[in-house]
């Protein structure tokens, strides 16, 4: 795969869906922690100005002098911004300043490439990860397009409800544009069913309809809806640490195992 030469050892995945509340951030934190448990070196990148990922890993954005915004718009080196977390993953944190980065980038040439350039630069400087997971904001704006441009694959967390349909086509249109213009090799790794209520047939039917309509793989297993997830962010740790053996934690471990198998790592 010729384009990826500097970082061929790294699997970069964007976790994207322009709908909020579908468990993008929860999935990034949990899959990241699960991959780290399995001995992988993992970097999570918070690309949402709301900084929920940063918060949920126990870091208060207000305490930060440097964040992803500086890396994307001020030329600050990634290594100066990346933090270690208690979950065994590294984090490139966000603050509300990232909202401004989005506006700043709009007038910049090459804005779609800005994150890819950061990833390539990290590799060139020997800052190496097995996985880089990109937590996208709930929009299809500059930051999401930059994430899709830097990524090898995209995961689409999806809450299996009747109307969850509607955004998927739009997201896939964006993926097609990215493939055409900025990242020919981008692959959709699949939809990740989240907030899944296995007691109803409804969820299963919606999932099947979506995967057939859009010809998308489903990343198994579905992540069950459980109250444990609401508790984890306040503890500043992912559910893998706060409820080690819960069904949700186990499901994310299995998902991570399937992603590992797919990456061939
Ligand atoms: P997004 O990043 O897509 O906006 P979040 O990961 O922030 O979504 O999740 C939205 C809310 O849903 C959060 O309050 C989170 O704690 C909760 N949540 C995520 N996954 C689950 C789950 N499997 N069961 C119950 N609540 C969940
Ligand atoms: Mg989020």
**Molecular shape:** globular
Structural class: alpha/beta
User: How many domains?
Assistant: 1
How big is the Rg? 17 Å
Proportion in β-strands: 5-15%
Protein name: Chromosome partitioning protein
Family: Belongs to the ParA family.
Function: May play a role in septum formation.
Pfam family, one: AAA_31
Account of the protein in words:
The protein contains twelve helices and seven strands. By secondary structure, the protein is α/β, with parallel strands linked by helices. It has one domain (2-259): Rossmann fold, CATH 3.40.50.300. The model is unreliable at 1-7 (pLDDT under 50). It is 44% helix and 13% strand. The longest helix is centred in the middle third of the chain and has 17 residues, at 165-181. It has a seven-stranded mixed beta sheet with strand order 3-4-2-5-1-6-7, with helices on both faces. Bound molecules: adenosine-5'-diphosphate and magnesium ion (MG). Magnesium ion is lined by residues 24-25, 48, 52, 135. Belongs to the ParA family.
Concise structural overview:
This protein is an alpha/beta fold and 265 residues long. It is built from twelve helices and seven strands.
Question: What's the arrangement of secondary structure elements?
Answer:
Blueprint lengths: L10 E5 L8 H14 L4 E5 L5 H5 L11 H6 L4 H4 L1 E2 L5 E3 L5 H9 L7 H11 L6 E5 L6 H9 L2 E7 L5 H17 L5 E8 L6 H13 L14 H8 L3 H4 L4 H17 L2
Parallel strand pairs: 1-5, 1-6, 2-4, 2-5, 6-7
Antiparallel strand pairs: 3-4
Function: May play a role in septum formation.
Family: Belongs to the ParA family.
Protein name: Chromosome partitioning protein
């Amino acid at each position: 795969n010729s384009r990826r030469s500097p970082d061929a050892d790294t699997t970069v995945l964007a976790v994207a869906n322009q709908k909020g509340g579908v468990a993008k951030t929860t999935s990034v934190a949990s899959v990241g922690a699960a991959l780290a448990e399995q001995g992988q070196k993992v970097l999570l990148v918070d690309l949402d100005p709301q900084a929920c990922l940063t918060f949920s890993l126990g870091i208060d954005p207000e305490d930060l002098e440097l964040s992803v915004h500086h890396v994307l718009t001020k030329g600050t080196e990634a290594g100066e911004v990346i933090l270690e977390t208690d979950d065994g993953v590294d984090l490139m944190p966000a603050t509300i300043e990232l909202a401004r980065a989005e506006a700043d980038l709009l007038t910049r040439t090459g804005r779609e490439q800005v994150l890819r350039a950061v990833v390539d630069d990290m590799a060139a400087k020997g800052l190496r990860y097995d996985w880089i997971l990109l937590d996208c904001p709930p929009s299809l704006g500059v930051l999401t397009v930059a994430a899709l441009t830097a990524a090898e694959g995209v995961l689409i967390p999806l809450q299996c409800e009747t109307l969850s349909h509607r955004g998927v086509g739009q997201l896939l249109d964006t993926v097609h544009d990215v493939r055409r213009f900025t990242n020919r090799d981008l692959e959709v790794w699949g939809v990740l069913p989240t907030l899944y209520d296995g007691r109803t047939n409804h969820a299963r039917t919606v999932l099947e309809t979506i995967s057939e309509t859009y010809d998308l793989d489903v990343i198994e297993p579905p992540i069950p809806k459980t109250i444990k997830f609401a508790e984890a962010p306040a503890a500043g740790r992912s559910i893998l640490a706060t409820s080690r053996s819960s069904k949700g934690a186990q499901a994310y471990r299995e998902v991570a195992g399937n992603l590992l198998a797919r990456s061939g790592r």
